[in-house]
Amino acid sequence: MVGGRWWVGVSLALLCGLEAPAWGAQHEGNRRLWVEAQQRSVRKERSALSQVAQAAMPAVVSITTRQASTTPGSEGESQKGIGSGLIIHEDGYILTSAHVIEGAEDISISVYSERGYTEDFPAEVVGEDTRTDFALLKIKASRKLPVLKLSSASQVEVGDYVVVIGNPFGLAHSVTAGVVSAKGRTDVTPNGRDGDFDYMQVDASINPGNSGGPVLDLNGDVVAIANAVNVAGQGIGFAIPVDIAKAVIPHLRKYGKVRRGWMGVSVQDCTPTVVEAYGLIHARGVVVSEVQDGSPAARAGLQVGDVIEGLDTGRVERAHKLRWQVAARGVGRNVVLHVRRGERPLKMKVRLEDMPGEVEQLAPAVATQSSHGPVEEPGTGGGGPEGQANGRAPGGKAPTP
C-alpha cells in the first residue's frame, strides 16, 4: 500500500510539476513551427512568381512605333509610341493590341536574344481588329523564337495571383504581380467606345506601354492581354481575356481582319425592368428588342419580345455574350436559336451573314503612351497620350449580333 501510494504520488508530481512546463515549451515550439511554416509558404509563393516571370520573359517583346505627329505646328515630325506584345508562334508571329500600332508608319520589335541582349526587328502587320483591339504582327528572325502558351481566362478566378510583363513607359520587360480583382467587366468601355470586350480587372500595375503584354497565371500560361488603365484610380487595370484573342487570330492571319457573323437583332438582358416592360413570363435568357428588316433573323421568323434562351447547345444568359458568340461563329455558319415566345418554345435556324456596311471603328487608345512629349487629353489615339478606361455612357447603343 505504501509503495502504491508513493507511485501514485510520484506520478502526480510528474504530471503537475514536471510536465506542465513541458506543455508550455511544446506550445511555444508549435507556435514557432507555425510561423516558420508560414514564412516558408511566402517564400514558396515568391519563388513561383519569379519562376513564371523568368520563364516567360524571352517570349515577351517591346514594341516601338513611329507615326506622324498630330500636335499642331509639328508637321513633318514623327511621334514615338510604345507598347508590348508576346510571341505566339516560333516563326515570328506576335500578338499585341491594335491601338499600339494605330497609325504607325514604322514598327520595331525588340526581342531577347539567346545571349541575353535585345535584338531589333522591323515588323509587318498581318492583320488587326479594332473591335477586339487585337493585332497580329510578323517578324523575320534567323532562329526559332520562344513562345507563350495561350490558355483561358477560365483558368483563374477572383483572388488568384497573376503576373503582368510589359514595356511600361519604355522600361522593357518590367514585371508586376497582383490578383484578379474582378471578371466580366462589360461596363468598362475605353473612351466610351463600343467593342467586343469582357474585361478582367487586376490590381497588378498596368501602365502606359503595357498594352499588348501578357497576363500570366501561376502555370506561366497567358490568360489575358493587358489593355487599359483607369488613370483616375490606383491598382485598377484591365485586360482582355485571351479567349477572345484565340477566336480572332485565325481571322487575322487568313483575312487580315475579322469577318463577324451577323443575324440582325438587338438584344437586352432580362433585368426586372425589361421583364416588366415586355410582360415576360419566363426571364431566362435575353429578350429581342429589335429585328432588322431583311436580316437573317427576320427571315428565320424571330420577333420583338422573343426570349433567346440558347444558342446551338449552349445557354444564353447575357446579351453581350450572345453578341460575341454570334460574331465569333463567323460568316456563312448556321446556328440554332432556342427561343421562347410566351409559353411556347421554338427552335430556329439562322444562317449568319456579313454585317452590312460594317464600318471599322477607331481602336480604344488605352494603357499606351509615348515616353516623350506631354500627356494630352485622355482617350486620344495610338501610342501617344495616355488613355483612360471609362464606364459606358448611359443610353449607349450596343452593336447588334
Strands, helices and their partners?
Layout lengths: L1 H55 L3 E9 L9 E12 L3 E4 L9 E7 L5 E5 L1 E6 L4 E5 L22 E6 L7 E12 L2 E3 L8 E4 L11 E3 L5 E8 L7 E5 H14 L9 E5 L2 H7 L7 E6 L4 H5 L6 E5 L2 E2 L3 H11 L4 E8 L2 E8 L37 E3 L10
Antiparallel strand pairs: 1-2, 1-4, 2-3, 3-7, 4-5, 6-7, 8-9, 8-12, 9-11, 10-21, 11-14, 12-13, 13-14, 15-16, 16-17, 17-18, 17-19, 19-20
Structure notes:
- This protein is an alpha+beta fold and 401 residues long.
- It has 2 domains: 55-257 and 368-401, Beta Barrel (Thrombin, subunit H); 265-351, PDZ domain (Pdz3 Domain), CATH 2.30.42.10.
- The chain contains 5 helices and 21 strands.
- A hairpin with a 7-residue loop joins strand 8 (161-166) and strand 9.
- The longest helix is centred in the first third of the chain and has 55 residues, at 2-56.
- Mean pLDDT is 80; it is low at 1-21 and 359-399.
Trace the largest sheet across and list its strands: 5-4-1-2-3-7-6
Calculate the mean pLDDT score and round it.
Answer: 80
Question: What sequence of helices (H) and strands (E) makes up the elements?
Answer: HEEEEEEEEEEEEEEHEHEHEEHEEE
Kindly identify the CATH topology of the largest domain: Thrombin, subunit H
Summarize the structure.
The protein has helices spanning 2-56, 242-255, 272-278, 296-300, 319-329; strands at 60-68, 78-89, 93-96, 106-112, 118-122, 124-129, 134-138, 161-166, 174-185, 188-190, 199-202, 214-216, 222-229, 237-241, 265-269, 286-291, 307-311, 314-315, 334-341, 344-351, 389-391. By secondary structure, the protein is of the alpha+beta class.
